[in-house]
Design a protein that fits this description.
This protein has 166 residues and is of the alpha+beta class. The chain has helices spanning 35-46, 59-66, 113-126, 145-151, and strands at 3-10, 26-29, 71-78, 81-90, 95-103, 132-138, 155-162. The longest helix is centred in the last third of the chain and has 14 residues, at 113-126.
């Protein structure tokens, strides 16, 4: 099965086309590192999109990943339930990547994606020294994912077709 991976970037916060309506979504940064939380979120959000690259990692690998001072995690809640999350990672040289982003299955299609992505982008730009924000997605993702990234102002700069899972 051929999978297309799309690489998108933003080179200025001015390129952001934000979605302001939160529809009751509350987003909090997880300021205490707990790798089990990140692992749970990865599985909760990613299972339906075949996120598998980190599933074979040991707890020690997860702990090392989450304890990286350049990685930050935000969790979205709706009426007290986890609705989604995003992780941002700075390379320390001006580039911040949206590592993982998505909604929990029950919250897809309720209008939260644009606002959550807007908040991810704003938080990425607020990280010290950021002059470029990028993200990648693939053809296994939700049918609206690529359109949401573009609607928020990301520009496609590369795509590739592989047989691997994104």
């Amino acid at each position: 099965m051929s999978i297309i991976t799309y690489y998108l970037q933003m080179n200025s916060v001015d390129e952001l086309i934000g979605k302001e309506a939160s529809l009751g979504l509350v987003i909090n940064e997880a300021k205490i590192n707990e790798f089990r939380v990140n692992k749970f979120l990865y599985q909760l959000v990613g299972e339906q999109w075949q996120w598998q690259d980190k599933l074979s990692e040991s707890d020690a690998q997860w702990e090392a990943y989450v304890s990286d001072p350049n990685l930050r995690t935000w969790i979205a809640y709706y009426q007290g339930s986890i609705a989604g999350y995003f992780e941002l990672q700075s390379d320390g040289q001006g580039t911040t990547e949206i590592m993982y982003f998505g909604l929990a299955p029950h919250f897809i299609g309720k209008g939260f994606g644009g606002y959550l992505l807007s908040q991810a982008i704003l938080n990425a730009w607020s990280m010290t020294g950021t002059n470029r924000v990028f993200v990648h997605t693939c053809s296994l993702d939700h049918a609206s994912a690529l359109a949401n990234y573009k609607a928020r102002g990301f520009k496609l700069y590369q795509s590739e077709s592989t047989e691997a899972v994104c």
